[in-house]
Amino acid sequence: QVQLVQSGVEVKKAGASVRVSCKASGYNFITYGISWVRQAPGQGLEWMGWISNYNGKTNYAQKLQGRVTMTTDTPTSTAYMELRSLKSDDTAVYFCATRRSLALRNAFDLWGQGTLVTVSS
Amino acid sequence: IQLTQSPSSLSASVGDRVTITCRASQGISSDLAWYQQKPGKAPQLLIYAASTLQSGVPSRFSGSGSGTDFTLTISSLKSEDFATYYCQQVNSDPLTFGGGTKVEIK
Q1: Is B86's CB within 8 Å of A61's CB?
Q2: Is residue A19 within 8 Å of residue A80, measured between CB atoms?
Q3: Within its chain, how far is the Cα of A28 from the centroid?
Q4: Nearest CA in chain B to A58
Q5: Minimum CA–CA partner of B84 in chain A
Q6: Which string of DSSP letters, residue by residue, matches A77-110?
Q7: Measured between beta carbons, which residues in chain B are less than 8 angstroms from residue A112?
Q8: B14: nearest Cα among B61, B82, B60
């Protein structure tokens, strides 16, 4: 079954770190990278960055530089997103997403189910 | 690259023709995608490369445009189409999304 399955709900204190996992199955994980997108409550979608599952190359959104790290474990087909120094406005649903064809030009045809991260002060 | 969607919300009836626009702050060729999102769910890809229908998406959805101005059209609204729609530019990093258009039942 082709899917991305994410880890569960997280509740963190301000200043802490969170790590969300995204396990892929049913397609060639190495071929395309994983992007992370977040959505604050009642708000729109925000792209956070991307990691190549082939060579680990990353590209992060400027506003998150220094606080976010994306990694990938190819033997288990799992991608991870760690966000540090959490603030209340990091409260959001975090999605992993990928494309499975070059023709999609970085549009995402496969998404994880989302992971709610709540940051309390 | 900023994407401005309009309207931010609309009310429509089943069977209506609905048009949503997305304007880019600079030219992005045809590097635009459209998504549908329902409450509590991940976005679903509808259209990529501005006008190519994703596999499995009903033909009542269509996309057009290039450069800076793009349109998503639903030819005859069905009950399952009430949702929020987002455009996304995939021309250059950082990838960006429009603010969304919520399609509600009239």
Answers
A1: no
A2: yes
A3: 18
A4: B93
A5: A44
A6: TEEEEEE-S--GGG-EEEEEEE-S-GGGTT--SE
A7: 42
A8: B82
CA nearest to B42 within chain A: A113
Nearest to A85 by CA among A22, A9, A12: A12
Question: Is B94's CB within 8 Å of A107's CB?
Answer: no
Q: Chain A interface, mutation test: which of B28, B95, B102, most A Cβ atoms within 10 Å?
A: B95
Residue located via tokens 């959805």: B61
Residues A83-110 pLDDT 10s: 999 999 999 999 999 999 988 988 999 9
pLDDT tens for each residue of B4-61: 999 999 999 999 999 999 999 999 999 999 999 999 999 999 999 999 999 999 999 9
Tokens of B37: 């999102």
**Chain B residues with at least one Cβ partner in A under 8 Å:** 31, 33, 35, 41-45, 48-49, 52, 54, 86, 88, 90, 93-100
**Three-state secondary structure call for residue A121:** coil
Q: Do A97 and A6 contact (CB within 8 A), yes or no?
A: no
Question: What number of residues does chain A have?
Answer: 121
Tokens 């190519």, residue located: B52
